[in-house]
Amino acid sequence: VWLALAWRIGGRFGDWMAQSMARALRCPSDPNYIGSQMGYPYYLQWTGALGGFRKAKRFAPTCPMLFIYGKRKPFMFHSSSWAEDVASGPGCQVIGFDTGHWVMIGKPAEFNQALATWLAAGDRNAH
Predict the structure, then answer these.
(1) Relative orientation angle of helices 2-9 and 11-24, to the nearest 10 degrees
(2) SS3 2
(3) For residues 89 and 65, is the Cβ–Cβ distance under 8 A?
(4) I need a surface site. Which of 57, 72, 112, 120 has the fewest CB within 10 A?
(5) 127: CB partners within 8 A, 6+ apart
(6) How would you class 69 by CB atoms within 10 Å of its CB: exposed for 0-12, middle for 13-18, buried for 19 or more?
(7) Is the pLDDT of residue 6 over 70?
(8) Are 36 and 15 in contact (CB under 8 A)?
């Protein structure tokens, strides 16, 4: 809700709110790149504005896709059924890591290995 409110308020105070949330969650990004505009998806989700995500078009990848996410996040933007659908696609894979939002920071070696393995498998299948 805090990030939704930050988006609604906007401006310097909204940016401060977003940056303070990032600090509290130990976001590894430069705070200068964090602003209230990043709270728009939270605003849609929490308020249901414009139908929220209930009316969102269902995403179904038309090409191989690797979806990596952290399991220890306070809020997910995907459902387990969506992840299962993606994983069932040709060349697709879904991997949940025991990390927070920033998987590549929490488990850098494992992230890089998973990405390299997935890319190599796709390269073998292309020939």
Answers:
(1) 160
(2) helix
(3) yes
(4) 57
(5) none
(6) middle
(7) yes
(8) yes
Query: Which pLDDT score is estimated for 19?
Result: 94
Count, in order, helices (H) and strands (E) of the chain: 6, 2
* pTM as predicted: 0.65
From residue 7, alpha-carbon distances to 76, 79, 96, 125 in Å are 19, 24, 28, 44
Where do we find the tokens 């709270």?
39
Paired residues of 67 in beta bridges: 94
Q: How many CB atoms lie within 10 A of CB 109?
A: 7
Handedness of CA 39, 87, 81, 74 (dihedral sign): negative
What's the mean per-residue pLDDT of the chain? Answer: 87
DSSP labels, 23-39: HHTT--S-GGG--GGGG
Cβ within 8 Å of residue 1, ≥6 positions away: 42, 46
Across the range 59-72, mean pLDDT stands at: 91
